[in-house]
Design goal:
Length: about 150
């Protein structure tokens, strides 16, 4: 069990310990000023059954990146010490170069086309994702305050 072992515990006891640990982990909030912002815990529930729990602050991983992390983690697990099992990361400067080469005018036109028929704005709290000044000016799409 996370930091210990399940030696001497029956399956039901091991599951109870696991469930209690999960309940405690759910309320153990992350402090951005104090590492770690990512926790791993491995539990042995039976001789041949394990649970890996990954807990992270949402600033580190989101719905897109979590599956990538898990994919890489299992690739490394299958090949211990074999970092070549992972794809080479694309340097961030390459992404910035690609992004800088995009046609901003075409992007604005595409989004204005998408928003053109949308007359009602929905807001959640005080933040409105469609509050974009250039779209009002260039598309003629006007959103009224709700």
């Amino acid at each position: 069990m996370a930091g210990g072992g399940s030696a001497g515990l029956g399956e039901a006891e091991a599951r109870d310990v696991f469930e209690r640990w999960l309940a405690e982990d759910r309320v153990d909030r992350f402090d951005l000023g104090r590492p770690p912002l990512l926790r791993f815990a491995l539990f042995r529930l039976r001789e041949d059954r394990f649970r890996l729990v990954l807990t992270n602050h949402h600033i580190l991983l989101d719905g897109w990146s979590t599956p990538l992390l898990v994919r890489d983690l299992f690739a490394l697990y299958e090949r211990p010490g074999g970092e070549s099992a992972l794809p080479r990361p694309t340097p961030y400067r390459d992404y910035l170069a690609w992004y800088g080469s995009r046609d901003r005018g075409a992007a604005v036109a595409a989004w204005c086309g998408v928003l053109a028929g949308w007359r009602r704005r929905r807001c959640w709290g005080r933040w409105c994702p469609v509050r974009v000044g250039w779209c009002r000016v260039r598309c003629g799409v006007r959103f009224r305050r709700v």
